[in-house]
UniProtKB/TrEMBL annotation:
InterPro entries: DNA_clamp_sf, DNA_polIII_beta, DNA_polIII_beta_C, DNA_polIII_beta_cen, DNA_polIII_beta_N. Its main location: cytoplasm. Keywords: Cytoplasm, DNA replication, DNA-binding, DNA-directed DNA polymerase, Nucleotidyltransferase, Transferase. Transmembrane segments: none annotated. Residues 254-365 form the DNA polymerase III beta sliding clamp C-terminal domain. It comes from Ferrimicrobium acidiphilum. CDD domains: beta_clamp (cd00140). Coiled coil: none annotated. Belongs to the beta sliding clamp family. Residues 122-240 form the DNA polymerase III beta sliding clamp central domain. This is DNA polymerase III subunit beta.
Length: 368
């Protein structure tokens, strides 16, 4: 059996599908299926599946290859076209004057993911990708923690769609107007594993800005389709924590600061903070018109910088992890960042200066 196709889209399809596999050495591999002139490449594990399609010329066939090696070899081949030949238990890739061969893997038996009897909702993809990028930073990267800390809430809101994630130290929230992808959901909200959400954001970011996204939300699974790629994921079957009482707080202190000044100052401060053997902290000391940002590492050195601000109270100091602070500031879209504070041991709020469509709550570091 053999078929021919363009090498570049095949390379992209292999790379997309392989990201569903949790390790480069995954024994499940990539499943290749050619039917009626269309190749589908799929990477599938028990909770995540990514499949991409590529038009081909040739006979129907089905086989499984190692994932990482197939991707790397396809990237390195010369020529714009590639011929794929399957003989016995070996697949060969021929392009230009190069030919490589791989032993096939046994077909993996992982239950398929999909949503039955649920209509697809079509929504714009660009703003969803931007919202996911803003919120996913607050989700835990440790898969061994409570599932809710490694998931993102997708919930219906009066404006459209609300995204929320938290790792227990920080919380990020983004309201996206005009998007309703949960109209068919039984509860109006679902929790999607962060790993799947980050892969979705990566796929959307690589698509044209005007690309539409097809969404199907079921009781246990969700499916997202954009262009030639489809991502399916299991949902987290636990309610998201009650975050509203954390967001709906009246703050007694407000600081307004130029976003680019903050980002510029943080570059130097974060570099010094990296010298700390354990954790480091950035101290903010505010007065009516200025804010001093400082990092001090014992036996190494210190950095401090003063920026112009508008602060609503008398002198106030609070300390944060510099990297977590930078994540929140970089998520703000307005030119001016709005900080809101209660006390030096309570979570601070970072938002746009003109709206609360993006909210980032960050717990401070309290000195003992």
């Amino acid at each position: 059996m053999q078929f021919i196709c363009d090498r570049e889209p095949l390379t992209d399809a292999l790379a997309n599908a392989s990201r569903a596999l949790s390790s480069r050495g995954s024994i499940t591999g990539l499943r290749w299926t050619v039917t009626a002139g269309l190749l589908e490449v799929e990477g599938r594990e028990s909770d995540l599946s990514i499949r991409s399609t590529v038009p081909v010329d040739g006979a129907d066939t089905r086989f499984t290859t190692p994932a990482a090696l197939a991707v790397d070899l396809m990237k390195s081949l010369p020529g714009d076209r590639v011929e794929v030949v399957v003989e016995d238990a070996v697949v060969s890739f021929r392009s230009g004057r190069a030919e490589v061969s791989l032993n096939l893997l046994n077909e993996f038996e992982v239950p398929p993911l999909g949503v039955e009897d649920r209509p697809a909702v079509t929504i714009p993809s660009a703003e969803l990708a931007s919202g996911i990028a803003q919120v996913a930073i607050a989700a835990s990267k440790d898969d061994t923690r409570d599932l809710i800390y490694s998931g993102m809430l997708f919930a219906s809101s009066p404006e459209g769609l609300r995204l929320v994630a938290t790792d227990g130290i920080r919380l990020a929230l983004r309201d996206i107007g005009g998007i309703n992808m949960l109209s068919e959901s039984d509860t109006g909200e679902v929790v999607i594993p962060t790993r799947a959400v980050r892969e979705l954001e990566r796929i959307l970011s690589g698509s044209p800005a005007d690309q539409l996204l097809g969404v199907q939300i079921g009781t246990r699974e969700a499916v997202f389709s954009v262009g030639a790629t489809t991502l399916a994921t299991r949902l987290i079957d636990e309610p998201f924590r009650d975050y509203r009482r954390l967001v709906d707080v009246s703050y007694s202190r407000v600081m307004l600061a130029d976003r680019m000044q903050l980002i510029s100052a943080l570059r130097t401060l974060r570099r010094m903070a990296k010298e700390a053997r354990n954790s480091s902290m950035l101290r903010m000391t505010m007065t009516g018109t200025s804010c001093e940002l400082s990092v001090k590492i014992p036996q190494i050195g210190q950095v401090h910088e003063v920026i112009d601000v508008n602060f609503s109270d008398e002198e106030f100091s609070i300390s944060f992890d510099p990297d977590l602070l930078a994540d929140g500031i970089e998520g703000v879209e307005s030119e001016v960042v709005r900080f809101e504070f209660l006390e030096s041991n309570r979570a601070a709020s970072i938002t746009n200066s003109d709206s609360r469509s993006f909210v980032y709550l960050l717990m401070p570091i309290v000195q003992k």
